[in-house]
Write a structure and sequence with these properties.
- By secondary structure, the chain is mostly helical.
- The chain has a domain of about 100 residues: Orthogonal Bundle (Arc Repressor Mutant, subunit A).
- The protein is built from 6 helices and 2 strands, in the order ααααββαα.
- Strands 1-2 form a two-stranded antiparallel ribbon.
Length: about 150
């Protein structure tokens, strides 16, 4: 097997592993005590960790259409998980989002459950192996989306 074939096989293996991680995260979200879908969890996490964010900020970060994010936010508002903090941000560019107390609590439960799984999976790893893994994942996620 030449270098090109090895590289292609390696890329396929990485793709398969990422797909497995994603699929398991979605399944876990369905099973766990915090009734948040993967999308809801992702949106609540972004809003909860990005003070002063707007729907356009989420759309840009997630690389999704603003209307898609708007529909998801409407659903979260109807569930009482997200609300507008005030009419506009400091630059007058749109309504700022924030989590409600219920949204914050559900997000925390969801994060704890997901983090618990990661902690259990890395239980036998050294601190150095965990740091290396985090660095490689960070490098992968820092790549440009084209």
């Amino acid at each position: 097997m030449d270098h090109t074939e090895q590289r292609a096989d390696g890329i396929q293996a990485v793709y398969n592993e990422i797909q497995t991680i994603s699929r398991r995260a979605v399944a876990r979200a369905r099973r766990m005590s915090a009734p948040l879908s993967f999308v809801e969890h992702s949106l609540l996490t972004f809003i909860g960790t990005t003070p002063g964010c707007r729907a356009t900020d989420i759309a840009a970060d997630f690389q999704l259409n603003r209307s898609t994010i708007s529909r998801q936010l409407t659903s979260l508002m109807e569930l009482g998980l997200v609300e507008y903090a005030r009419q506009e941000d400091e630059a007058g560019r749109g309504r700022v989002l924030r989590l409600t107390e219920r949204g914050r609590q559900l997000r925390e439960r969801s994060v704890e459950a997901q983090r618990g799984v990661v902690t259990a999976r890395l239980q036998d790893w050294s601190a150095e192996e965990i740091a290396d893994f985090a660095a490689v994942l960070g490098r992968f996620n820092a790549g440009s989306e084209e």
